[in-house]
Amino acid sequence: MSAERRLKRLLEPLQVKQVTLRNRIVKPAQVLGFAADDGNASPMLIDFYATLAKGGVGLIIVESSCVDYPIGGKGQNRLLIHDDAFIPSFSRLAETIHSHGCPTFLQLSHNGPAGHFSGLQPLAASALSAEEIPISDPRVKYDLPRAMTLADIEHAVEKHADAAWRAKQAGFEGVEVHAGHSYLLNSFLSRAWNHRDDDYGCQTLETRARFAAEIVRAIRARVGPDFVVGMRVNGEEWGHEQGITPQESRGFAKILESAGLDIIHVTGWGYGYGAYSWVQYPEQLLYPEPTVPLAKMVRKPGVIASRAAGIKEAVSIPVIAVGSLGPELGDWILRQGMADAIAMGRRLMVDPELPRKLAEGRSEDIRPCMACLECRTPFQRYQPVSCRVNAALGKEREYEIRPAARKKRVVVAGGGPGGMEAARVAAARGHEVVLYEKAPRLGGSLPLAALIKGTQIEDFPALVNYFETQLRKLGVRVELRQEFTPEMARALKPEAVVVAIGGQHATPTIPGINRPNVLTGQTLQRKVTPYLRLLGPRLLGWITRFWLPVGKRVVVIGGLLHGCQVSAFLVKRGRHVTILDGSDQLGGGIPVAMKPRLLDWLAEKGVVMLTGAECQEITEEGIIVRTRDGTVRTVIADTVITALPTLSNPALSKALEGVVPEVYAVGDCGESRLILQAIADGSRVGHCI
Fold first, then answer.
1. Mean pLDDT lowest for which of 167-181, 253-267, 570-584, 590-604?
2. How far is residue 345's CA from residue 333's CA, in Å, rounded to a whole number?
3. Is residue 569 a contact partner of residue 287, using CB atoms and an 8 Å limit?
4. In sequence order, what DSSP letters do the residues of 446-459 get, joined into one string?
5. Of residues 680, 668, 625, the one with CA closest to residue 644
6. Would you say 637 and 617 are in contact if contact means Cβ atoms under 8 Å apart?
7. In the chain, which segments carry CATH 3.50.50.60?
8. HSE-up of 309 (CA within 13 Å, CB side)?
9. CATH C-level class of 3-380
10. Contact 162, 86 (CB under 8 A)
11. Which band of pLDDT confidence, cut at 50, 70 and 90, is reported for residue 113?
12. Does the structure show a pLDDT above 80 at 302?
């Protein structure tokens, strides 16, 4: 069945007042860190949105733009819209998006109690003590907010109306006011924040929604009847007894529609350690294991999408659903009448051409989102976001596929993620590419990663399938079971060789490391690889829940990403695990948004995690360690496993020097790299050749 028929509802146009969306796929507002330092729309940001528009999305909601600086909170490289001086750069942005046939709204935001970026005391509905603040992430220090006065409220209403007028002057067709998450307007809507007893207090739904409704009416008065006024609201707040309920969110939606709202975008929020993360990224409820009742809602209809459905029943205006929704699930939600449009954030960051590929029936060409949350790590460190799979994110102009000045004979040695990406890009630019991989299949370490991590969230086989499809379509000749050597280089005389053979396994020099009760990373991979080839990671992962040639008590040497994920794998299979790491970087390399969840889960499962531990000797009983306080003791273990980052592997690159005119090293063979850096290396090299 063609994509047009299979995803008919998703690809249908949608009318929102005077604005026609060519399909029902919406790029929601997500702060990317691409704005200029002064808050203007930078060339980097405009290039990203131009690529999105060109890719065929139905509507772009440009990321959060602060209406009242600095009290509204800016953060690093975020957009500002509090002054007329920003209109010219926003005009260039809107004009660029329109040039590709796509309408666009601008999201207006005031961080309110979350506005600890400004250095000023943040604003909220009520002045709360440290004990009263609804914490969504204990790692973030929330400054105590002050209660807004009536003059503050009047000022904020005016600032939102002014910002909407500027958006209209810049050429946007509409605005979306952010009244969700833990931002200013939500502090009035939510009883978790609102302790007032005046006309904006928590007594009734009407008093709680009064501030938001006044903003809608003020914007309408400034921009006229045809301009679209939307709002993003929490469909529910989890984890707090005073949080917004689904029934309340439906009531708010009715009030806001009566105030003149044209479209409503339903999100959600969570309070408690890490709760905001799984509400925003519900697929993460499945890892390390489904421990929250909401996990059963991840696939259908989606945690937040079900709340959008409730609001859809209460209003007549269009409703946007969000929450880790892909094309198939999005189309199903639309066909069920649960929403009118589907927001896809990370999927469109991974592949901005997703809508066009769907419309053309090329779903196999869509770059898969790994749901790895690598994109969140730089964001939470106030850096421009990056993507594990799409190295061109934030580099759209630089990494645009352009024909090479001269077609070259290119060899890629190694079929891991870095090598496959280098081959893909080089071939797309017109080079004649041959890829040599000594294993029987492409993927490098990805099948082993799939076995260890599982495939419920990060679908590594899907990533390998994507690369295999692209290499085949681009005419890359793939030679499996063939290791590329310097002798082959002398015979074939390629003009460029990309060395992507992976790193060397790190084996610690500990007395007893060669004992039979030790599995080094190299030994483990050698033993597992034949079974992976025969059974695949999904089936082998299932089998290891019943049969695993590892003792009941296991010590894992290495506490970074590799060691923690191996430990989680073992715990799920009934092993008692101790993690030993010489550093204080426990969990290093795990995406920031998920690191606490994994470490907490390991602790809950009884995993002992010793940092600053020096491994002195492996014995028949286990491993002798010196702990941080200088105590020497034996950690009892039936099996010791090393799970350490790989080391650089420069031998082939050096051997090719003087033999091949151009030699490039990518991934672990240059230095220890994660998948994100390996693919980034491969893409960079593919564009350089």
1. 590-604
2. 17
3. no
4. HHHHHHHH-SSSS-
5. 668
6. no
7. 518-642
8. 16
9. alpha beta
10. no
11. very high
12. no
* pLDDT, tens only, 158-202: 999 999 999 999 999 999 999 999 999 999 999 999 999 999 999
Indicate the burial class of 475 (C-beta count within 10 angstroms; 0-12, 13-18, 19 or more).
Answer: exposed
CATH for the stretch 518-642: 3.50.50.60
Residues in the chain: 689
Cα separation, 455 vs 476, in Å, equals 27
Shortest CA distance to 567 belongs to which of 636, 640, 674? 640
Token pair, residue 517, equals 């009760």
Helical spans, DSSP H, in 190-264: 205-223, 246-259
Amino acid (one-letter) located at 545: R
| Six token digits for residue 479 | 């030679």
Taking the C-alpha atoms of residue 276 and residue 260, their distance in angstroms, rounded to an integer, is: 30
Least confident of 269-278, 442-451, 651-660: 269-278
DSSP code string of 350-382: H-TTHHHHHHTT-GGGSPPP----TTHHHHHTT
Where does residue 156 rank: exposed (0-12), middle (13-18), buried (19+ CB within 10 A)?
A: buried
Token pair belonging to 26: 């919406």
Q: Write b or e for each residue in 586-611: b if 16 or more Cβ atoms lie within 10 A of its Cβ, otherwise e.
A: bbbbbbbbbbbbbbebbeebebebbe
Mean predicted lDDT score pLDDT of the chain: 93
Q: Which CATH class is domain 409-504+648-688?
A: alpha beta
